[in-house]
Every structure is written in C-alpha cells, then in structure tokens.
Amino acid sequence: xxxxxxxxxxxxxxxxxxxxxxxxxxxxxxxxxxxxxxxxxxxxxxxxxxxxxxxxxxxxxxxxxxxxxxxxxxxxxxxxxxxxxxxxxxxxxxxxxxxxxxxxxxxxxxxxxxxxxxx
Length: 119
Fold this sequence. Notes:
- Belongs to the PPR family. P subfamily.
- PPR repeats lie at residues 22-56, 57-91, 92-119.
- By secondary structure, the protein is mainly α.
- It has two domains: 1-54, no CATH class; 56-119, no CATH class.
- The protein has helices at residues 2-16, 23-35, 39-51, 58-70, 74-86, 93-105, 109-118.
- α1 (2-16) packs antiparallel against α2, α2 (23-35) packs parallel to α4 and α4 (58-70) runs antiparallel to α5 (74-86).
- The longest helix is centred in the N-terminal third of the chain and has 15 residues, at 2-16.
- The radius of gyration is 15 Å and the shape is elongated.
- It starts with a helix and ends with a helix.
- The mean pLDDT is 87.
C-alpha cells in the first residue's frame, strides 16, 4: 500500500508540473489497484485514462476483465471485452481465458462455452 501511495503522489507531481501521465503510468496504477483489491479505484483510473484520450492496451483490459471476474462481475467483464473490441483492440487468448474462467467459476458453464465458441 505504501508504494501505491508513493506512486499516486508521483502522478500528482506530474500533473502539477503541467504534464500528463502516459498509458504506462495509468496501466501500472490500474494493475496495482486491482492487485490490492481496489477495483473501484482501478475503474476510476481507467475512466481518467480514457478522458485523457489514451487507449488502454491488452494488458490493461485483461487486468480489468480478470479483476471484474474475480469480484463476481462477469457481465461487466464481458462489457469491457466489447469496449476493447470497439476501441480497435482484438481480445487475445488471455482476454478470453479470463472471461471463460469467470463464467465457469460463477456456475454459468453454458455462457463459458459460448464465449469459447467466439474465440
């Protein structure tokens, strides 16, 4: 948690100097929020990233999809996959794996199979 707070302070300093963080900075913050269980904070950072005009990469989308599935929000995770596609980023095997596992873990085996068929 201490390093996350330090990282957040660095981002604040970046803003104070008149610069904007790049996609790598946002992705790192999102990853660490998800890793620590701060999914809502990660989603707010994702929204800030979009507002800055930055496009998330596979890593960022997969981290969010995985975290949403682990939180039992598989429908929202699938919506993120749709956003990913509309942003021009085709889901990769890891993207589908997160979603298939999410539906399988939530007892929705048929939905997991339908996602598998989309691959």
